[in-house]
Design brief:
single chain; alpha+beta; 5-stranded mixed β-sheet; 5 helices; 5 strands; disordered N terminus
């Protein structure tokens, strides 16, 4: 049952990632009417017995991120101890602002209960963003063609 649920969630997140990737901006020089946004899906493993700590921490993180003007999407999904973050930011600068806030307010508590796994970043992530995310070992997918509304 858990394996089936995990497959359903994984399929949903893969479809969500694909649909978001399809509306991301095109590469420099190509025709596009889309925005310069960055989006990612981060998969993590929650430590056993950390449910209450996790729920409290996530409530704080959502409230804090909601105050960031350039944070367009900030959602968590969960299947047992698997946790997925779906995040989207308006610009590279907005990603850096968010990561600064995350680092100063939440990173220590976050990494004490969550182990990073798969991390896929979509959009025109610049060198500063790539450097800031390097510790999570992300895979990057550059924009190709599409549009965003």
């Amino acid at each position: 049952m858990i394996d089936k649920s995990l497959k359903i969630i994984s399929t949903f997140l893969s479809a969500a990632a694909l649909s978001f990737a399809l509306v991301l901006p095109t590469a420099a020089g190509a025709e596009s009417t889309s925005k310069d946004d960055i989006f990612w899906v981060l998969e993590l493993e929650l430590a056993e017995g950390a449910d209450e700590t996790f729920d409290s921490l996530i409530a704080e993180m959502v409230a804090s991120t909601e105050e960031e003007k350039g944070a367009l999407t900030y959602e968590t999904y969960r299947d047992g101890n698997k946790v997925y973050f779906l995040e989207r930011y308006d610009t590279n600068e907005d990603v850096i602002i968010h990561l600064g806030n995350f680092g100063s307010k939440f990173a220590e508590r976050f990494l004490a209960i969550l182990t990073p796994g798969s991390f896929k970043v979509y959009g025109p992530a610049d060198e500063a963003v790539r450097e800031a995310l390097a510790g999570f070992n992300p895979e990057y997918y550059d924009p190709h063609k599409g549009f965003a509304r």
